[in-house]
Write a structure and sequence with these properties.
Blueprint lengths: L2 H20 L4 H57 L6 H83 L3 H13 L5 E5 L2 E2 L8 H9 L4 E2 L6 E3 L6
Parallel strand pairs: 1-4
Antiparallel strand pairs: 1-2, 3-4
Helix pairs in contact: 1-3, 2-3
Bound molecules: zinc ion.
Zinc ion binds next to loops.
């Protein structure tokens, strides 16, 4: 195969290599994974926050229970004194009755408070169950996407290896002087070291080529470099 055609083939492979290295295909997936990771983190924080609130609420409920028990004990004593009272003065009885009534009110208040807090604990517990469920769902989705990402990444890597192998085979078919010019030019233009003579201009830099050089390029006895951009300049006959 002609060296010029080999150069063009190699350039196509370079472009493919360039694209694969960018891994554009993986970007939406990486973004999705990053977002999911962030959402999981937030949900886990929310869950541990709920945990703290529940513990705090349980502590308060225990306190209310303790207070209620103490009040019940006191009211029991007061009632015994009230109903078993023998010969106390009317004033004493009235005061005792008032204090029993007051304690009854306090107990009723404590019970309402207890119910409120217990309901809140139920609600928070339900919320925590839901949060944990949603964390599990997100983790499942994350793992599925991570697997897809790894497979795709692996596929890209192996595509890249095969492109590099093809490049190597083409380079092995180059004459030594062509290979050395190619290597030099690729240092400056890693993905497009080869330009075409299109009409009178270089396809790499769009600057017109002197007519003497155009003729030589078309003769293709040796490789020519564009004076303006420095790319390898070759001529391809129009395909019929
Ligand atoms: Zn040029």
């Amino acid at each position: 195969m002609k060296q010029e055609n080999l150069l063009l083939q190699l350039q196509e492979l370079l472009a493919e290599e360039h694209l694969l290295n960018k891994k554009q295909e993986l970007r939406p997936l990486i973004k999705k994974l990053t977002n999911l990771h962030e959402e999981i983190k937030q949900a886990e924080e929310q869950s541990s926050d709920l945990e703290k609130q529940i513990t705090e609420m349980q502590r308060k409920v225990a306190k209310v229970e303790e207070q209620t028990a103490a009040l019940n004990e006191k009211i029991e004593e007061a009632r015994e004194r009230l109903y078993g009272a023998q010969g106390g003065s009317l004033k004493e009885l009235l005061s005792l009755q008032q204090s029993v009534q007051k304690m009854e009110e306090e107990i009723a208040k404590a019970e309402t408070l207890y119910l409120e807090k217990a309901n809140l604990i139920d609600e928070l517990t339900q919320l925590r169950v839901e949060t944990k469920e949603s964390i599990n769902n997100m983790k499942r989705a994350y793992n599925i996407d991570l697997k897809i990402y790894k497979e795709k990444n692996h596929q890209l890597e192996s595509d890249l290896v095969s492109i590099l192998e093809k490049q190597k085979k083409i380079k092995e078919m180059f004459k030594p002087e062509v290979l050395s010019i190619y290597i030099e030019t690729t240092k400056r233009f890693p993905s497009n070291p080869v330009a075409l003579l299109k009409g009178q201009i270089c396809s790499g830099c769009n600057i017109s080529i002197p007519s003497v050089l155009q003729v030589r390029i078309k003769e293709a006895k040796k490789l020519h470099i564009c004076d303006s951009c420095g790319r390898i300049l070759i001529y391809q006959k129009e395909k019929l």
